[in-house]
Design a protein that fits this description.
Radius of gyration: 20 Å
Strand content: under 5%
Number of helices: 11
Structural class: mainly alpha
Order of helices and strands: HHHHHHHHHHH
CATH class of the largest domain: Mainly Alpha
Shape: elongated
Number of domains: 2
CATH architecture of the largest domain: Orthogonal Bundle
CATH topology of the largest domain: Tetracycline Repressor, domain 2
């Protein structure tokens, strides 16, 4: 027996304009699939089946599974954490890092993010999605955090890009080696090094 709700979702997905209902169904199905099977078991075919959406629709909106994963990741991260505003860069970094590592530990897309980084080392499509879609979007908040510190005079404006790169490297080393336990003193030490804030200052 045909599910009329699924049929309507399929009809609403026809055309170039995204149907919010269909998009939400696809993202929800993708998140559930990630939670159940991880990135290795994450497929457009199964997402389409669960969402009641046509594969051509998904491929039109998300050309690869990496593109779809990035949107699931972005939505989950936005719901899980917000940009801190403590008044100092080092303590912003501390708060942001603790929240980020918690997100990586506790959510389906966070737990499988390493798989996207691994796939980006072996496929051009995943690398392009990571470089051209993921990084520009995900770095907006972080860049704002560092630029805000530059405006306060904590760091030089010309140092923002380099410090941002150092901070990303610090996080990704911990992610790729699965060392994401919450450790405020250790994170604070690195946060102070990146921000150029001596130990004991700003307590």
């Amino acid at each position: 027996m045909t599910d009329p709700t699924a049929t309507e979702r399929r009809r609403s997905s026809i055309g170039a304009r995204r149907s919010p209902e269909t998009e939400a169904a696809i993202l929800s199905a993708a998140r559930e699939l990630l939670a159940e099977r991880g990135y290795a078991g994450f497929s457009i075919d199964e997402v389409a089946r669960r969402a009641g959406a046509g594969k051509p629709t998904i491929y039109r909106w998300w050309p690869t599974k990496a593109d779809l994963f990035i949107d699931v990741y972005s939505a989950e991260k936005a719901a899980h954490m917000a940009l801190p505003e403590t008044g100092a860069l080092w303590s912003d970094i501390l708060a942001y890092t603790r929240a980020l590592w918690g997100f990586w530990r506790e959510t389906p897309s966070g737990r499988t993010f390493r798989a996207l980084l691994a796939e980006a080392q072996t496929t051009d499509a995943a690398l392009a999605a990571l470089r051209e879609k993921f990084l520009p979007e995900r770095l907006k908040d972080l860049r704002h955090m560092f630029e805000r510190a530059a405006a306060r005079g904590e760091i030089a404006p010309e140092a923002v890009d380099d410090l941002l790169t150092l901070y990303i490297g610090f996080n990704w080393v911990h992610l790729l080696t699965d060392r994401l336990a919450d450790d405020p003193p250790a994170i604070a030490r690195v946060a102070r090094l990146i921000a150029g804030t001596p130990a004991g200052e700003g307590r």
